[in-house]
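RECORD CONTENTS
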Amino acid sequence: MRDVFEMWGNTRMVVLTAMTASLYAAILIPFKVLPLIPGVTEFRPANAVPVVCSFLFGPAAAWGAAIGNVIGDFFGGIGPGDLFGFAGNFLYGLIPYKVWRALTDADPVPRSATTWLAFLGAVGLAAAACALTIGWGLNLLGFVPFAVLGNIILINNFAVAAVLSPLLLAALYPRVKTAGLRYDDIMTPPRRRRRTRWLGLFLIVVATVGGLSAGNLISTGRLVLPALTADPPGTRAAAVGVGLSPAMLLLLIGVALL
């Protein structure tokens, strides 16, 4: 994970972070008028931006997505839940690049069945990590049930990114590569053993699949934690907060190992 901090010492990476943030916010803001959950989330065609920029700019896209989301939230209302929005969008902008590097050395422009599977896997895990983080956080605060928000974010992120990102990458990636503006062109990415990366990938899969499943079951009352039987109905904030904590920990460890 040191690469997400070391990039701040490189001027070009800082510029790419600012560019990602401004582009993300500029597309987010007009669609605030199409809320899916008023004051919480909306239809977001901009969700393709963090994924495309992740494949191009690596950790700069993670910071850009997180900052851009906060800028967009200023136009919909700022609150404590935006801390989880920052974290979720950070992971959403970081995981595609990290997962792709763990799976293949090919350019992230899917052309064959293998690269399409890798691409959709990277996007799916990024969308799931974002949904898990934000859904868990806002349910923990008692704002929105996980079964509502987590699923909306997952579908919204994955559907938009899976459709738009390949088209944008096909047009942009060759030009960015020729210009020498990819993360790999600007900095030297840290190298980890393949076994370590595969372990990180495995932990992310377990965390997201297990966390999303448990979150839906707990927040709808179909899974009751014995220690929290007194948790009142509604958002079941305590039960979801405690029940999904192991999944969140596994997710963070998995990302750190990629």
Q: What stands out?
A: Residues 3-257 form a domain with the Arp2/3 complex 21 kDa subunit ARPC3 fold (CATH 1.10.1760.20). Residues 25 and 202 are 32 Å apart (CA to CA). Residues 146-179 form the longest helix (34 residues).
